[in-house]
Amino acid sequence: MLALLAGVAMLPASAAALQMDGLPLRQASGNAGNWQMDTQRVMRFMLDGATVSITPWPAGLPTRLRTQTISSSNVPRAAGPIRRLTLQQAGSAEPWLQLLSNAPVGSEPLPGWQLLLDSTRHLNAVRSDGRTYPLRVGKGRKLKDETGCWQFMLLDLRLPDSGAGAEQEARADWYLRKLPRC
């Protein structure tokens, strides 16, 4: 709505931008418990005595979670804050899920991978060797790094008008989920 008030149209690739509310404004980590999802696909949990909500909780992810060790970050940007939430099972050394909200195009979901728009304004995962893999909202894509395989899921893509300024750069919401095998 802010984009419309400013006279800049954002062209969504889907209707449901990922919102993460209640995360600390600073980088934080800790154990998060009491995970509950309601009928509107809002996932809520407690972190440091505060309620955090994720809307909508992405389809295909578990809806029942035990206590998770999480880390979160909130990075202010002209086009809105970039929010990252990383989850790992208690006692595990590796994360199993990363959620990103409002990530700029050009970001790196994994080492050796970058998200880039092509000349037709479609988003692609580009490997460091130059190989390009098209991404579509709601369609999973396997990405591999030195730790194994991940499922990349593009949840939303917001493209500004071609005349928009830096405060309206292309933004994406996505998750990476660790896969047990490739």
Query: In total, how many beta strands?
Result: 14
Gyration radius, rounded:
16 Å
For the sheet with most strands, the description reads:
11 strands, antiparallel
- Please tell me what the overall shape is: globular
Distance between the termini: 41 Å
What does this structure look like?
- This protein has 182 residues and is mainly beta.
- The protein has one domain.
- Helix content is 2%, strand content 50%.
- The chain contains 1 helix and 14 strands, in the order H-E-E-E-E-E-E-E-E-E-E-E-E-E-E.
- The protein has one helix at 2-5; strands spanning 10-12, 19-21, 28-37, 43-47, 50-55, 68-75, 82-89, 97-104, 113-117, 123-127, 132-134, 140-145, 148-160, 171-178.
- Strands 1, 2, 3, 4, 5, 6, 7, 8, 12, 13 and 14 form an 11-stranded antiparallel β-sheet that branches. The chain has a 3-stranded antiparallel β-sheet with strand order 9-10-11, with no helix packed on it.
- The chain is globular and about 45 Å long.
- It starts with a helix and ends with a strand.
- 25% of the residues are buried.
